Every structure is written in C-alpha cells, then in structure tokens.
From TrEMBL:
Region of interest called Disordered, as start-end residue ranges on this chain: 20-46
Listed InterPro entries: Ribosomal_uS4 (IPR022801), Ribosomal_uS4_bac-type (IPR005709), Ribosomal_uS4_CS (IPR018079), Ribosomal_uS4_N (IPR001912), S4_RNA-bd (IPR002942), S4_RNA-bd_sf (IPR036986)
Residue ranges occupied by any Small ribosomal subunit protein uS4 N-terminal domain in the UniProt entry: 3-93
Description of how the protein assembles with itself and partners: Part of the 30S ribosomal subunit. Contacts protein S5. The interaction surface between S4 and S5 is involved in control of translational fidelity.
Origin: domain of life: Bacteria
Lineage: Bacteria, Pseudomonadati, Pseudomonadota, Alphaproteobacteria, Caulobacterales
Organism field: Brevundimonas albigilva
Pfam families reported in the protein's UniProt record: Ribosomal_S4 (PF00163), S4 (PF01479)
Protein name: Small ribosomal subunit protein uS4
Amino acid sequence: MSKRHSAKYKIDRAMGENLWGRSKSPVNKRSYGPGQHGQRRKSKVSDFGLQLKAKQKLKGYYGNITEKQFAKTYAEAARRKGNTSENLIGLLEARLDAVVYRAKFVPTVWAARQFVSHGHVLVNGKKVDIASYRVKADDVVSVKEKSRNMALVLEAQQSSERDVPDYLELADRSFSVRFVRAPELADVPYPVKMEPNLVVEYYAS
C-alpha cells in the first residue's frame, strides 16, 4: 500500500468515520482508531477536543491540506462578509482539486490533487496545475482531450459511489463542468457530518 493510501485510510480510522463514503474504507470493518490503543474506551472529549476534531476532519476530507493552507483559507473566510463557517465551505469547494473531485473526473480527492498537478486540467481553456487554485463562478473546468481515456477518469465516471452536486453543471460528455456558484454547507454532499461552526470556534479561541 502506498504512503498516500495508508495516510488516507489512517485519517478515516483516526476520525472513526468513513470520510469519503468509500466502500474500501477500513472503518467499514473496524470503527476504532488506529494503533495498539485504538480499542480503548473513549473518555469524554473537551470542547477544544471537539473543535480540533472538526478541524482535522474537514482538513482531512480535502486531501489533508496543510495547516498553513487551511488557516489561510479560514482567514479569508473570516474576512469576507456573511457567515464565516459558510464562507469556509464555499472557499474549500472552490479549490480546483475539489471541483475536479466533485465533477467525478477522478475517483478520490487525493487523485484529484495529483491529476491537477500533472497538468491534465484546463480552466477556461488554459492549463492550471495548482491544486489550491480558486475557481470562480462561471469558470469552466475540463479534462484535457488527451487525458480523457485515462483509466482513473473512466473509473470515476462509471462509479455509483457519489453524484455530481447541483452547483456544478456538466457538459461535453461529462469531461467539462461549469462552476455555477460557491455552495453552502447544506449543498455539499458530505458522506459524514461536517461542523464548520466548531472550526470557527477553534480558530476564535
């Protein structure tokens, strides 16, 4: 098993939840945490512990983005008008790798980051290879013509594990998608409960 895969599944087990709703998740068989102490009875978690877990879960869901990137995204959400927790979700979903994953161009968020960085993705017809690139409303994200027959692309499009949300508009035989708008929490098809309000409390404390 590659480092990337083991890290991905370690997050699932550490959280005790199947973050991406995948059939291969080890949580489907073992819901306790990783390591020799994983089955110990859990003690009551403090408010800070709940806030930290909410942050780690949300950060982990998007491919375990770095703490620096996540904190920067939160700071941007806090600067914007409106509800900070809703702004945070909108900004995370506007990441190019998140859009690529949501559009079902690839099967996992981890694959989405690599797919973008290897130059397989276009934004408004121009190659963008930065996973954290922020997509704007009405931007069109597409898979390069030469990359459309890649095995992981075909696998993702045939998968029934998840659907494309309505804030993305598919076109061009599902190889192109228009980012209609930044979604709110209720619009995002998370397989598990996300609590961005606790993330806001974490950074505010």
